[in-house]
Amino acid sequence: MSRPTQPQKKEELLEQCLAAAIEAGALDSSINAIARKIGTSGRMLVYHFGSKQELERQLIGRLETRLREKLWSLQGVSLGETASLAESLLEMWGHLTSPEMHGLLKLTMELNQRAIQGDSETQHFLEQESQKWVKSLFDLTNDKTTALSIFHVFQGAILDFLTTGNAQRGQQSIQVFTETLR
């Protein structure tokens, strides 16, 4: 008979694993390699998460939540306040392109690569996460088309930033897009 997992310990391990994944900018390590990075055993991770796939699923969920937290802090800006919306989106862009977010963004691109390669579980997960992003943006703008457009502008800008290191172009795209809302 196995012992029940300890929620607090599991939460601590999840945070440590997320920090290690962000630092590495990847999820492709074995469960034992992840365990070594955070100073525990692979058996302990399996005990708390069941499998590497479940650990990854929970890490990815936490990652997406962290990225949305910044957006949710910006809610309350209405579309009528275009200058405020532009300022809020540019502030979010500045946060997303800061050095401490680089690992998180690289992880999101790794997920996109998995989905492109046909991993149906990742495709399904990313579709759900995309819907959450669009809903959050809708809550910010009160306009579904605008929310979807902002989502796509940010996705393209993030891809460009990660491949070129140029955050200016994303900032310019966001500025130009918000000017079209006037």
From TrEMBL:
The residues that make up the annotated DNA-binding region are 30-49
Q: Which domain of life is it from?
A: Bacteria
- Gene3D superfamilies associated with the record: Tetracycline Repressor, domain 2 (1.10.357.10)
Cell wall biogenesis/degradation in keyword set: no
**What Pfam families does this protein map onto?**
TetR_N (PF00440)
Record domain HTH tetR-type: where? 7-67
Q: Give the matching SUPFAM superfamilies.
A: Homeodomain-like
Q: Name one GO molecular function term.
A: DNA binding
Write down the InterPro entries for this protein, in alphabetical order. Homeodomain-like_sf, HTH_TetR
- From the Swiss-Prot or TrEMBL record, give the protein name: TetR/AcrR family transcriptional regulator
Q: Which species is this record about?
A: Oscillatoriales cyanobacterium SpSt-418
